[in-house]
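Pasting two entries for a bug report.
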Amino acid sequence: MRSVPLICCVWLLAAIPATGLAAGPDWGPAQFLIGQWTGEGSGQPGASTGAFSVTPDLQGTVLVRRSFADYPAAGGKPASRHDDLMVVYHGETAGELRAIYFDSEGHAIRYSATASAAGVVFVSEGKPDEMRYRLTYTPTGKDTLKLLFEIAAPGKDFSRYLDAGAHRGR
């Protein structure tokens, strides 16, 4: 009798791939981001090198982006490192992507994501009297992309804060 529950569990597990449940969700415009990336950037914080990964987690229900950028000493400022974590998840409506971002500087930013003709754009949510942020990923080839991070002060238009190029691989 003990083998009946075990056999049922094995049968149910074997049936999961056949039903498509193991395939995970479609990440729409963010699908191309999945992988390991390295790159170089420039902008207001200075020149940098870094890497990021975007991986499915929690059985494919979220994408986790982990990122770091190293900034060399320059202009009298010491070398520094920026680390961040962003979790992308499906919103309440079909095809809607949302994200929450945390970094080593203490920021926590909620984003809504939209597809653009060029890739995927994450725009911060918030009140009109708060800073706004926009993060755009644009594929430039099979294993390359451009990243643009922009900031807008309350009542102002977005302006470039930093941009980077990245390539897939370790």
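Entry 2 (this is the one that rendered wrong in the viewer):
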Amino acid sequence: MNTKNKKIGFDIDLSESTWLSCEQICILFGMSRTVIVKHINNIIKSEKINESINIQKRFVEDSDKPIKFYSLDIVLLIGYKVNTIRGVEFRKWASDILKDYIKRDK
């Protein structure tokens, strides 16, 4: 994703599905871990999403314990909740991708 100031990116394994760690979500939206965790908890509490399907614990190199990873569905929901410049840029970027996909599919 490109922002006005820079390109935001990190390695994502697209072989199956997109899963991001809390740290990656924080980088994506330029927010603190506390705020992102609060959004995740609110999404789960609202029952908009099934926790068991959309949160995975994975062992990561150089970590003593498994790390939680969140599905693309959770990342998108967070992207439409955050009230930051990056959140706005993310929504524009996501909308452009969807528009291009719809145009291409016609």
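Dev reply: Rendering is fixed now. As a check, the viewer should reflect this: The radius of gyration is 14 Å.
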